[in-house]
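To: structure subgroup
Subject: Chain for Friday's discussion

All,

I'm putting the inputs and outputs inline so they're searchable in the archive.
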Amino acid sequence: MPLLGFQLGDAVRIDTRGAQGRQRAGRDASDRRPALARQQLDIQPPLQPRLVAEDRRDLGRGVPRDHLVSFYPWQAGPPVTVATRYIHVGAGPLIAGSEGPLIIGHRGASRYAPGNSLASFTEAIRQGADAVELDVRRTLDGTLVIHHSATRHRVPVAQLTYAELVRRCRHEPPTLEAVFRLCSGHIAVNVEIKERGCEAAVLEMAARRTRLDWLLITSFHGGVITTVKTLNPAVRCGLLLGPTRMVARSRRLESLPVEWAEECGADFIVPHQLLAPPPPARARRQRGVLDAAQRRGVPVVVWTVNGVARMRRYLGDPRVAGIITDLPGAAMAVRRRLHDSRRRPVG
């Protein structure tokens, strides 16, 4: 189905400079996405976003640079063949045994301890979070390490052994295995896979160290989600969506995140709060992502929510399945107050 004059299989360059932004789409026959036939879906990801410097200045404070280039979840690479189209599991919680909207600690409880550290994850457990979110990369020697940035002192993590990475870090980055050992039986784990190629290793580690119904996999890359769902369709996967002015301000693009999620097989979407403002939204188009997801039965987990007022609005919104926050303890307190107020008899 054409979207804005082009299809997801088209090669697109986006330039949003100036008041009107320009879109240019050129079709490359070699990049055309094959039609769905006999439930076989070939996903070809030819789209590579490009945001200019002017866009980065007004996309919100504190947004990591690598999230600003995530307008399209697809990254260039070979086609991924999926055996069947996935159906969203709308019924039931995203994490087994959870009640109410999820509280997920962003890199643990990163306002209280260095993010992505064992101390931060321990603090999130102490504060009662439902899950911890962490970033996984693979080092040169194959170690799955918790590390957000793609480089360390300008050297890619993928080109460093784990020992070399530790020597370059102020705080020793934990391995994924160590985090699973810490969290097992205490808290669910939301693993953000930062790059393609380590999906099978992550699932193998998770199968040995934790309950799969206490595991969430998220990524900005649609190909990662597709690969995980192919390897194990039972694992809950979420498509991360970074903020861009184009998505945040365009009514015509309000349903694209949900369509992207359906294409790659994601069970839920994880938009930045700029894409899904809490109620009351100032304009109808600002409510587009939440409304579109609700219509299609796709759960929404919003990141990164740190203000108490915003926590209250998101956690009280039936369209929101959870939030990711640096302050899980504060969010838990807000959720308890909302729960108590609903149980309190009127009159």
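Points worth raising on Friday:
The two ends are 53 Å apart (CA to CA).
The CA atoms of residues 97 and 214 lie 9 Å apart.

D.
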